Amino acid sequence: MAIFEPLATPHHWKPAALAAGPFTGLQGGAVASLLTGEVEAMAGARNWGTAISAAAWFLRPTPMTELRTQVTVVTEGGRVSVVDNTLWPAGEEQPCATVRVTLSRERAVEVPGFYGSSADPVDPTAFPLRSPHAVHGRSWFMDAMEARAGGDTAWFRLHHAVIAGAGPLARVLGPADWTHGIARPVQNVVADPNPNLAVQLFRSPRGAWIGVRADARWRPEAGLGVGSGVLLDVDGEIGRVSMSVILVPLPGSAPARGQGSAAG
Fold first, then answer.
1. Domain 4-105+126-249 belongs to what topology?
2. How many whole angstroms separate alpha carbon 170 and alpha carbon 152?
3. What is the dihedral angle through the alpha carbons of 31, 33, 37, 40, rounded to the nearest 10 degrees?
4. Residues 6+ apart with CB under 8 A from 111
5. Most buried by CB count within 10 Å: which residue of 98, 147, 180, 244?
6. Nearest 5°: phi and psi at 121?
7. Is the pTM of this model over 0.70?
8. DSSP state at residue 254
9. Are 196 and 251 spatial neighbours (Cβ–Cβ below 8 Å)?
């Protein structure tokens, strides 16, 4: 079962319960994966090459309903193509999210004196299993993957395709979207949604496991933060991830004495 299934109308999708986020609406990583995966699924026929980066913006919560997407080619041809994909709830005019995907056709380049880095392979199954639950107590995106904690790295293995035909970058975006949560300076005191997500890959992951070596910085007096991290597979580094963070009170919590709401 895919996390998003195509409907009879082209570019219309039905999300599974596994696409849900921890509070309301869909998980941002699931949405970014859908939008990027649709572009990757088109890449072979259009000769765009491999998706090497995606920059996603989450404009408002995406509801658990029928969704429609629209792919727009910004530029194609030559070595690099850039493609946008935007998502709406079916029947609505205000978009929920958009992603810009950069694709490139690979071409070997000889660089004298250059030696690539190497690392000993890692076995994530040797690390403890993590099973976080959503606030609403129902199925959510984390249930679509296996998660393990190993030293300074969190490891994820998706058990479901995002969509049929999605490529490696779509598979990386879901785990990458957890980066700011992995490295929270303080746990379970505020919600820290990310309004954007940027991932760059310099090679496709080998195998099913995606690792995130995360870092985060908060500035509570402004309600802002950032998350970033190194992305890995079992053989070593594959790219980077970064996002902005907005600090807000946990749903149902009261503001601290002498402070107003973060939204105020």
1. Porin (2.40.160)
2. 24
3. 120
4. none
5. 180
6. -60, 145
7. yes
8. P
9. no
Please say whether the dihedral angle defined by the alpha carbons of residues 253, 246, 210 and 83, taken in this order, is positive or negative: positive
Instruction: Quote the CA–CA distance of 114 and 119 in Å, as a whole number.
Output: 16
Q: Structure tokens of 233?
A: 């597979």
Helix (H) or strand (E) segment spanning residue 181: helix 179-182
Question: How far apart, in whole angstroms, are the C-alpha atoms of residue 143 and residue 145?
Answer: 5
237 alpha carbon, distance to own chain's centre? 17
**In this predicted model, what pLDDT tens digit does every residue of 244-262 receive, in sequence order?**
999 999 876 554 443 333 3
CA–CA separation, 146 and 89 (whole Å): 29
Give the β-pairing of 224-233 and 236-246.
antiparallel
| 3 state DSSP class of 39 | helix
User: How many angstroms separate the CA atoms of 21 and 30, rounded?
Assistant: 9
24-37: per-residue pLDDT in tens? 899 999 999 999 99
Give the SS3 label for residue 201.
strand
Residue among 247, 253, 182 nearest 221 (CA)? 247
What's the CA dihedral at 52, 58, 61, 65 to 10 degrees?
-40
Q: How far from 234 is each of 115, 118, 170, CA to CA, in Å?
A: 19, 11, 18
How far is residue 259 CA from its own chain's centroid? 32
Distance of alpha carbon 144 from alpha carbon 209, whole angstroms: 13
| Cβ-contact 230, 119 below 8 angstroms | no
Structural domain boundaries in the chain: 4-105+126-249
